[in-house]
Amino acid sequence: MVTSSLRVPKHGHTLRECEDASHVLTTGPVCVAVADGASESLLAGEWADLLARTLTEAARDDDCVLRDVDGFASALVRAGEAWGGWLADYVAGREADGRPIAWYEQPKLDRGPHAAVVAARFDTDPSGVTRWDVAALGDSCLFHTRDDRLLHAFPIESAEAFDNSPGLVNAFIRDHALLARHVRTSSGTAEPGDRFFLGTDALAAWFLRAAERGDRPWDVLAEFTRSSDLDGFTAWVARAREEGLMRNDDVTVVLVDLG
């Protein structure tokens, strides 16, 4: 099983300003998470990173985390609890550097950062069959492909289903039941040679539009992800934006290749 990830910021922004994050664990079952921080919130990229890391570790440690909405909601609450400690260290660090939180930053800090997230776990048995489990809250997506077919799109199945108000995980929410109501899960099996792509919303919307036209967007992404060609991917994303094929937003894709 081969994994690869690529990330490109919005046009006019640096990679350091990118508010997408991904995390991949390959020891034991392969666990992947992709998170998309909401730009209108403060520290969205940092929250996305912590969320992705927390969820991959939770999925690695417990094979039930991604199989039901309650298990995933519990992992989201744990990520929020970890954020409390991270934020305290951040505020203390700012004060130690002589850059305390400014009055205009405090309202956004109090509201907390938001992010969409999708996480997946892949377990391969001795016969070569891979079980996959995925959970999501929001509009970051997973695509399961085989040869020239899109077998599964999750949690959004059509390009027109994307909108401007996706579900988001707030770092301060501890309401397990509320989170669980917005979580979606899915599971299945895969064969050697299958490929999975996890991506944030701008890329996912492009992917589904291309598939609906009869194109093979999985081959386009595989060209860059298999070789970890960040320069080529960055140039391709820029062209797609210029041609109006992709919204100008942070873009992240992770490939899990069962070939």
Keywords for this structure?
259 residues, Phosphatase 2c, domain 1, 5-stranded antiparallel beta sheet, 11 strands, PPM-type-like_dom_sf, Protein phosphatase 2C-like protein
Task: Write structural notes for this entry.
The chain is α+β, with helices and mostly antiparallel strands. The chain has a single domain (2-257), classed as PPM-type phosphatase domain (Phosphatase 2c, domain 1), CATH 3.60.40. It contains seven helices and eleven strands. The strands form two sheets. Strands 2, 3, 4, 5, 8 and 9 form a six-stranded antiparallel beta sheet that branches. The chain has a five-stranded antiparallel beta sheet with strand order 1-11-10-6-7, with helices on one face. A hairpin with a 4-residue loop joins β2 (20-25) and β3 (30-37). α2 (69-96) crosses α4 (176-182). The chain is globular and about 55 Å long. The mean pLDDT is 94.
